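Allow me, if you will, to draw on your knowledge of protein folds for a short while. Thank you for your consideration; the sequence and its tokens are set out here:
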Amino acid sequence: MKRDIYKKLILWKHDKYRKPLILRGARQVGKTYILSAFAKEYVNSLYVNFEEMPDVIPIFEGNLSPDNIITQLQIKFGVSIEPKNTLLIFDEIQESPGALNSLKYFNERANDYHIVSAGSLLGVKLNRTKGFPVGKVDFLDLKPLSFFEFLDAMGEERLKALLIGINKFEPIAEALHQQSIALLKQYFIVGGMPEAVAMYVKENDFTKVRKVQKAIADAYVLDFAKHAAATDVMKIMAVWEEISSQLAKENKKFIFSAISKSARAREYETSIQWLVDAGLIYKSYNISVPKIPIDNYTNKNIYKIYMLDVGLLGYMSRLPVDIMVKQHQLFVEFKGALTENFVVQELMAGGRFDKLYYWSSGGLAEVDFVLPYELDIYPLEVKAGISTRKKSLLAYNEKYRPKTLARATLMNLKQDGIICNYPLYIVSLFPLAATNYL
């Protein structure tokens, strides 16, 4: 399955300042698959899975000099490990703190060896690992397939190239616009988890896709019990199960009292951070004023929570798959929760943003996303369906006079003064289109 991150791996390989690489991402987003595919760029490779091969762990518990480690790995696996020509893949590296720490020494003393590492719940483990080699490793993040990657999987490479190559803020051909919307509807049900996408490509059956999504969601719940602190497991599960119902409300701010009347935010901070570190949720923070640096104007205790994948959200919301035949009902279901979650997923997959923010004004107006990019802040309102309402954007404009305003809807590309309409299927291009074409 083609993934956009592959190009970044190639750049890493040829970077003269390259360091050992850690590939982060939630369970089942395809980390092992992409690293195995990347290994074909080398003369040979050695794959070490510390969870499946616990007998390898002692190699990293004594002398951590690169020469000693390479010698022992060559003896154990009967392979030749050559600088630049051999790719070392350390999978489930969180099971070996010594292997994590060894990356520091490879960077400092033997950086000609190419090492990539990954692991389930690695983000959780890294935040709790002492002696982590800060500044001695590179990072890449792998997420569920974006909509553009889904187009690749569906054999729609030409359509993807056309959409990515848009260089004018004007409507595209109506037939292509409708084709893109039809594919987007499929993506809303399938989502971007690689196994779900592969099942849909192979079987063209949403019911079978839902079975895959159920298995993935069940595996995540098992991870809670296996890897989280005992005191946090029930709280993590409570937050996880509450996300879909909270997103279905008009005010999507996460309300802890909805879990239980006595619940307070401070009681769930650790549990929510666990889900963030595991790559399973995104937080979007409320801001009072859209100014740079935006973190200085953030209300840390007021935020929305979104899931890593719109397909999983649909499954956990018990969304019936036959909604596909109901025109645009899919996009407006649950008060646009799927649409808003999709936009979050696309924005985060693009790599230009590592945090999300939204703006509200006394309950009278709310802009779904206000995102810092370079030296400006760009507001983006998300509308399910083809709504032309722009009350909140106009209120924001009246107060702050930004360079441009943007909406993401099912309408075609359109510019109305300083308001730019992004069809949902190209929202990942935001805000580049507006900055380039205005």
Observations:
- The longest strand covers residues 298-307.
